[in-house]
Amino acid sequence: MVTIRSLLFWALVYTYCGLCACLELLKLLWSLGTKPGKTFQWLIRENPPGCLSDPSLGTHCYVRIKDSGLRFHYVAAGERGKPLMLLLHGFPEFWYSWRHQMREFKSEYRVVALDLRGYGESDAPVQKENYKLDCLITDIKDILESLGYSKCVLIGHDWGGMIAWLAAICYPEMVTKLIVINFPHPSVFTEYILQQPSQMMKSASYYFFQMPWFPELTLTINDFKALKNLFTSQSSGIGEKGCRLTAEDIEAYLYVFSQPGALTGPINHYRNLFSCLPLQHHEVTMPTLLLWGERDPFMDVEMAEITRIYVKNQFRLTILSEASHWLQQDQPEIVNKLIWTFLKEESRKKE
């Protein structure tokens, strides 16, 4: 029975992977037919836009991890010695997606926005095996220690949310409070992605990313049109009531992901996901805040409420009806206010 279940599981994964690949191939052929001259033309941006060196966001720093030998890039704001707030971005993002939070929380925290393994200026190992969940979780522990801290407020968005959940489960002693944006508890997500047709369709990219090299190619078509559309289109981008990305913001993303080989590391994060399933139903033991943009086209909102059963401590869920998947960029003022309220709650109780 175990063998049969395993065969059925991988048959489902690869069948859906093939369907997603066929759809992307049709899009590629359509582009070649309508815009043959532009399909495979894209710019490699040599000079970063000025917003990436904005001093109000903090200082660019690097840390090398002794065990793995990898060097990680991060931007730090706020005085050394203050409590640490560690920020983990999603896909396709990098440290800059936390710019609104870095300006906001540096008054009381040492705010560190990390480029995850394989992203931006952080090292990107070649083999996909180097992006297994165990490696990504260990990165967070090692970086925390290398920064000279034993505890932090841990905040993650999207795939960074997955890593934040797992880091809090594996190393509960190092997370004082957990804040996750638009990503449910990993056990909820992995059950949904395999069992619910609606979530399977919304998570099509997770299946498509199992393929070698082709996903990277499709994201570069027409000068990274798919990447731009993720943040700006009506279906997946920040809505009219949100804080729209400026042209310079979009150029910052294009600068990072248009560098040679810059997409392989980020996509490799997903290429080990199904080999790690099923995840154990681990419980979270620290106070947890889950923020959710209801207009998220990639995640069923029902998963947010189910997450409650896995948190064996204070759990606060806030769903914002007019917000998108890119919540901390879409509604930064509301998100910052909700985070402040959550962070201050325990101190108020003691008073």
From TrEMBL:
<protein>
    <recommendedName>
        <fullName>AB hydrolase-1 domain-containing protein</fullName>
    </recommendedName>
</protein>
<dbReference type="InterPro" id="IPR029058">
    <property type="entry name" value="AB_hydrolase_fold"/>
</dbReference>
<feature type="domain" description="AB hydrolase-1">
    <location>
        <begin position="83"/>
        <end position="328"/>
    </location>
</feature>
<dbReference type="GO" id="GO:0004301">
    <property type="term" value="F:epoxide hydrolase activity"/>
</dbReference>
<comment type="similarity">
    <text>Belongs to the AB hydrolase superfamily. Epoxide hydrolase family.</text>
</comment>
<keyword id="KW-0812">Transmembrane</keyword>
<dbReference type="InterPro" id="IPR000639">
    <property type="entry name" value="Epox_hydrolase-like"/>
</dbReference>
<dbReference type="Pfam" id="PF00561">
    <property type="entry name" value="Abhydrolase_1"/>
</dbReference>
<feature type="transmembrane region" description="Helical">
    <location>
        <begin position="7"/>
        <end position="30"/>
    </location>
</feature>
<keyword id="KW-0472">Membrane</keyword>
<keyword id="KW-1133">Transmembrane helix</keyword>
<keyword id="KW-0378">Hydrolase</keyword>
<dbReference type="InterPro" id="IPR000073">
    <property type="entry name" value="AB_hydrolase_1"/>
</dbReference>
